[in-house]
Amino acid sequence: MKKTSEMYRGKTKTVYFTDNPNLLILEFRNEISALDGKHIETFERKGLINNNFNYLIMKKLMKSGIPTHMEQLLSDNQSLVKKLTMIPIECIIRNRAAGSLINRLGIIEGVLLNPPIFDIFLKNDLQHDPMINESYCETFGWVSKENLSNMKQLTYKANKILNNIFDNAGLILVDFKLEFGLFNGQVILGDEFSPDSSRLWDKKTKYKLDKDRFRYGLNNLIKSYEEVANRIGVFI
Ligand code: ATP
Ligand code: TYD
């Protein structure tokens, strides 16, 4: 398998074609972005941490029966994945209130959400990734009813598995985002799971160990990502 041309350069990752039409290389760069890409900074080691973090999580999810695009860890900052036809919907689970939910509803950060909330957002940078619901997907044809129901079920299943992993590591999984795509018509988990796309707090102190450190201009971003990675055994 050989890396060929660049397919897409996103805000934090670059996607490359390979000489196998069914496989792509995801390169995790050191950039981090907030405010719709208006705020971008570079942090040494971030690409390496997120690539390894994502690889471990995808492996654990696959072991528990969630189909994912992950094929192989290729290098410090690159992974080989199945080429998916991405579905432009972000699936979010919220176990506790944070981020856009507290801004929208005016509730206190950290409130337990039981049962967890499932939200969907349209991936559309020009429209600032608006929040949508199942009915919009049907009307505008962004994803079939059946595939969306599958995505919802897989996201809830992932939540159970991930809650277990992070709880055992002394962490609270506050919320997270997943993206799915189609491979031979089957819904498969794509993109990444990392502290860039989730909120993770220390169980005892509630210290934030995720991208909120960047969003809110707090210190110790990379130290926090490394802390979470080490606690779940990424570098063992
Ligand atoms: P955002 O940050 O809002 O997700 P982006 O496009 O800037 O948008 P990046 O993570 O930088 O995000 O880019 C990676 C891109 O690769 C994303 O658009 C993602 O949907 C896409 N992608 C992830 N996994 C796959 C895959 N297996 N096959 C095809 N495309 C993929
Ligand atoms: P949310 O609170 O809705 O938005 P924000 O973090 O921008 O205030 O996000 C919930 C979780 O989903 C959080 O862990 C971040 C993640 N997420 C992404 O990774 N990308 C996105 O485009 C969105 C909307 C959320």
What do you see in this structure?
- The chain has 236 residues and is of the alpha+beta class.
- The strands form 3 sheets. Strands 8, 9, 10, 11, 12 and 13 form a 6-stranded antiparallel β-sheet that branches. The chain has a 5-stranded antiparallel β-sheet with strand order 1-2-3-7-6.
- The two termini are 27 Å apart.
- It binds adenosine-5'-triphosphate (ATP) and thymidine-5'-diphosphate (TYD).
- The site of thymidine-5'-diphosphate has 14 residues, from β8, α2, β11 and β13.
Low-confidence stretches: none
Overall, the morphology is: globular
The name CATH uses for the topology of the largest domain is D-amino Acid Aminotransferase, Chain A, domain 1
Rg, rounded, reads: 17 Å
Distinct small molecules = adenosine-5'-triphosphate, thymidine-5'-diphosphate
User: Which structural class matches the secondary elements?
Assistant: alpha+beta
* Biggest sheet layout: 6 strands, antiparallel
Number of strands: 13
Average pLDDT confidence is 97
CATH homologous superfamily descriptor of the largest domain: ATP-grasp fold, B domain
- Helix count equals 6
Q: What is the straight-line distance between the termini?
A: 27 Å
CATH architecture name of the largest domain = 2-Layer Sandwich
What's the helix-strand series?
A: EEEEEHEEEHEEHHEEEHH
The helicity comes to 25-40%
Q: Which percent band covers the strand fraction? A: 35-45%
CATH class of the largest domain: Alpha Beta
Number of domains: 2
